[in-house]
Amino acid sequence: MPSQRKAEAVCFDVDSTVCMDEGIDELADFCGAGEAIAEWTTRAMGGSVPFEQALVARLFKPSMLSPGIDTLVKTLKEKNKEVYLVSGGFRQMISPVASLLGIPCENIYANQLLLGESFVGFDTNEPTLRSGGKATVVQQIRKILVMIGDGAIDLDVGGGADVFICYGVQFREGVATKADWLVLNFNNLITTLD
């Protein structure tokens, strides 16, 4: 098994790994967000902001990044490693995170909400919409690859990843015991890369 130092690419799960929260939980909280949402609605309906901007502001507030992720991504990029975000979450919520981290949109693999005047559905062409979708993505990338995540779905990328690192902020013993490496914070990885 190649070491993480020889990896050409690093794939990160997003929820509870790159971000401290779970996007779907945040979306659920949004449904009862009340006053702040009403303010954006008023602004959009009053014409002071475009509908798209209001929709993004209402639905997709920035997630709280995990401590050290920005430095880790910057360090990986300085070492010419490709960085990908691979998630069963929603592209609309992940794109702002990718932008903050300087990860290009073409390196995001996530589900796409289809929105019209209301929720229409999901883009069924996204591999992450299906069981085994993350494994499919990792195989498509075709590089010496490290997968970093917190859950069984991340672990189940199978032989597609050369190394699996369990990020243990949401410690899941069954995942941690099968990982090649367990880290509790990203500073451990940054130190290893230096």
Overall, the morphology is globular
Determine the structural class based on helices, strands and strand pairing: alpha/beta
Count of alpha/pi helices: 9
Whole-Å distance between the termini? 21 Å
Structure description:
Helix 2 (35-45) runs antiparallel to helix 3. Helix 7 (152-155) links the parallel strand 6 (145-149) and strand 7. The protein has helices at residues 23-30, 35-45, 51-59, 69-78, 91-101, 133-141, 152-155, 173-176, 186-193, and strands at residues 9-12, 82-90, 108-111, 113-115, 119-122, 145-149, 163-167, 181-183. The chain is of the alpha/beta class and 194 residues long. The chain starts with 8 loop residues before the first strand and ends with a helix. It has nine helices and eight strands. The longest helix is centred in the first third of the chain and has 11 residues, at 35-45. The model has no long low-confidence stretch (mean pLDDT 79).
Short description:
By secondary structure, the protein is an alpha/beta fold. 38% of the residues lie in helices and 19% in strands.
Question: Main traits of this protein?
Answer:
194 residues, alpha/beta, two-stranded antiparallel sheet, 9 helices, 19% strand
